[in-house]
Amino acid sequence: MLKRSTLKFTALLAAPLLVLLCPLSAYAWNKSGHMVSGAIAYSELQQLDPQALKQVVAILKQHPEFETRWRSQLNQVTIPARQQDLYLLMLAARWSDDIRQNPAFDHPTWHYINFPYKPANQPDVVQTPSPASENILTALEQNLTILRSTVPDSEKAIALCWVFHLVGDLHQPLHVVSLFSTQYPEGDRGGTRFYIRPAFQSRTISLHEFWDDLILSSVRFQTVRNRATRLRLNPGHQRSELSELLDPNIQNWAEQESYTLAVQQVYRNGTLAGSSDRNHGEVLPDDYATEVQPIAERQIVLAGDRLADLLSELF
């Protein structure tokens, strides 16, 4: 169990980026963002529960794609032998995006939940449907159940990768919300249909894509490692400053924390202007990127810490 007295667990400085990844409809953070959360979880476990970390690494090495996907990456000359386990957790955290459209492993609906957000100024004609029954919360519980069971480690390794990834997804605010309005009567699907331009001369992207790339844009091992270290050591990101860590309720992480951030910070309580035309996005306010960058950074650290706590509980 983790030893820090501030936690009893029972159950981001990159500059704002104008060059972003190609739009994909259901990604939370980009792959490097997920790698950062995996690196933070590794460092937390290394310091506070090395025995759990050892078990996590052992299980991941039983993953059905360990030899075909990960072995050659771990053996790169640029990866020090003493840091191969760190890199393995980074790769595990991004695996659920790496296997998109692979029928053997992919579950597109697992990455999000569309809690409806209808701004106060919207008319009654705007309807807000309930979230689908299969979603990130049900998927996370399903995979945690597998990890608590006696199934073979090869099956646990797949579930472990999903837990890594979904905990990260839960902390990207646009993965728990869909904006409903007269402009988006069918919902903006987590900002993927809410088109913006980061600056006047920027190309049009989705708001979701903008948020995905706030943590980092490089998947280079050393870059991810260094970014994770800086974020984790930020004085404002210490466990004593992250009061949310006292709440072990996963539903609350999504419905209270991330959803509230989406409403208040991402959409600015319904005042943020977006376009439904994918070719002509609205320009973001001048202060938007600088205001949301620290929020995204804090969220990715929360994700890494909470992932470590969950793994310590499980192993």
UniProtKB/TrEMBL annotation:
Keyword vocabulary terms for this entry: Disulfide bond, Endonuclease, Glycoprotein, Hydrolase, Metal-binding, Nuclease, Signal
One GO BP on record is: DNA catabolic process
For this chain, one GO molecular function annotation is: nucleic acid binding
**Which domain of life, per UniProt?**
Bacteria
A Pfam family (short name) is: S1-P1_nuclease
Q: Which protein is depicted? A: S1/P1 nuclease
Q: Does the record bear Transit peptide in its keywords?
A: no
- Write the signal peptide boundaries: 1-28
